[in-house]
Write a structure and sequence with these properties.
single chain; mainly alpha; 68% helix; WH_DNA-bd_sf; WH-like_DNA-bd_sf
């Protein structure tokens, strides 16, 4: 069997399947996101961004709540928060009501960094959605939200 086919070639029975298209779009967007953070994120990554965004929006939170709310594994949350803390972007303190729990708070420097990361994220969104018109972008986002809402509903039942 010959192995000299172009790597970008996709079998006809695969190329129009939503699962294939979603996975390829995910791979492209993940690559662009990683490159954006690499170039402009000052060593931070998307999980740092999610944690800072959650703290900015929700206020001080426990590490466990941050993990659940952002979809980041508990051990990864701890490591990421340690990195953010070393950069003075968050502060951790012992919860006086539950001495074994840490409460995490975003610092003013963390808010400033979050705003800079917003620009990185906005640039990546623009790259990902560049081929679409504004109306198509709104429709695409609405359809993805609908697909995810259906997933949330099926996991409850």
């Amino acid at each position: 069997m010959s192995m000299d086919h172009p790597p970008s070639r996709t079998p006809a029975r695969v190329k129009d399947r939503p699962t294939w298209l979603i996975s390829r779009t995910f791979a492209r967007s993940s690559s662009l996101l990683a490159a954006g953070f690499e170039s402009y994120g000052r060593g931070l990554r998307s999980y740092h961004y999610r944690l800072l965004a959650a703290l900015d929006e929700w206020g001080p939170s426990s590490q466990a709540d941050l993990g659940r709310g952002t979809g980041i594994d508990r051990s990864d949350v701890t490591a990421a928060l340690s990195e953010l803390e070393s950069l003075r972007l968050v502060e951790r303190s012992v919860d006086p009501e539950h001495r074994r729990r840490n409460i995490v708070t975003i610092t003013p420097a963390g808010v400033e960094q979050l705003l800079e990361l917003d620009n990185v994220i906005d640039g990546v969104q623009e790259q990902v959605l560049k081929p679409l018109t504004k109306a198509q972008r709104r429709q695409f986002i609405a359809l993805m939200v609908k697909l995810l809402a259906a997933e949330d509903e099926s996991s409850k039942g």
